[in-house]
């Protein structure tokens, strides 16, 4: 298949970190989609707008296309939600004649967008482009979730000192989550997390989170 995304999917799966993931996508999507501008914008990545290929104008909530992606967590392009006249009133730029944006999702929330644009004189995006972007965003979202969630498996001897719930909390502490974030993931209150950590400190004979993580990491299997 001459225009297959399988090579991109393989590159995404092989990425060892977020920088490699960005490179894998940025080196290939431009040619695949026949676009002149493209970029990945991660909401917590403040360097993204320094990329000359980035398109911040189409990934903000005040823009109808960006707002559609934010509200629905689904990809779209300008012809799906706007008339050509409406779009040109919003974006007169010749290098944004046609735009398409897709969501990057992690833990049920939007963490970024993949943005594509074609210059004036190029064809509009079609249903095949949208299907390819949907597939690409699924692979990106899954890989980012894997990279951002480092599973921790503790030595069974140490694990026996903690309850299953305490082990869950310890794993999330090792990932760098705050008490509020841990509570949100486990559906318990922030105070419950705080009290559990106090019990865990006593059991493990430590006095701080960093000390607890260091001790646990010393006996990682």
From TrEMBL:
SUPFAM superfamilies: C-terminal effector domain of the bipartite response regulators, GAF domain-like. Keywords: DNA-binding, Transcription, Transcription regulation. GO terms for molecular function: DNA binding. Residues 155-220 form the HTH luxR-type domain. This is GAF domain-containing protein. Transmembrane segments: none annotated. GO terms for biological process: regulation of DNA-templated transcription. PANTHER family: DNA-BINDING TRANSCRIPTIONAL ACTIVATOR DEVR_DOSR. The keyword Transcription applies. It comes from Hassallia byssoidea VB512170. The keyword Transcription regulation applies.
């Amino acid at each position: 298949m001459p225009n297959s995304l399988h090579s991109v999917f393989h590159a995404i799966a092989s990425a060892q970190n977020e920088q490699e993931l960005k490179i894998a996508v940025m080196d290939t999507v431009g040619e695949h989609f026949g676009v002149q501008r493209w970029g990945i914008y991660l909401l917590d990545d403040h360097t993204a707008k320094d990329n000359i290929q980035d398109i911040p104008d189409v990934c903000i909530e005040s823009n109808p296309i960006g707002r559609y992606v934010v509200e629905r967590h689904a990809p779209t392009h300008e012809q799906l939600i706007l008339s050509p006249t409406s779009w040109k009133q919003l974006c007169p730029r010749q290098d944004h004649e046609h735009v398409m944006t897709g969501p990057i999702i992690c833990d049920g929330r939007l963490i970024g967008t993949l943005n594509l644009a074609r210059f004036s004189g190029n064809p509009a995006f079609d249903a095949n482009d949208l299907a390819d972007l949907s597939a690409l965003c699924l692979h990106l979202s899954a890989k980012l979730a894997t990279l951002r969630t480092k599973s921790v498996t503790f030595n069974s001897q140490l694990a026996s000192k903690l309850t299953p719930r305490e082990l869950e909390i310890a794993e999330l502490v090792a990932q760098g989550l705050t008490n509020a974030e841990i509570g949100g993931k486990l559906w318990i209150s922030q105070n419950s997390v705080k009290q559990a950590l106090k019990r865990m400190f006593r059991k493990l004979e430590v006095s701080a989170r960093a000390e607890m993580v260091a001790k646990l990491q010393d006996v990682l299997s």
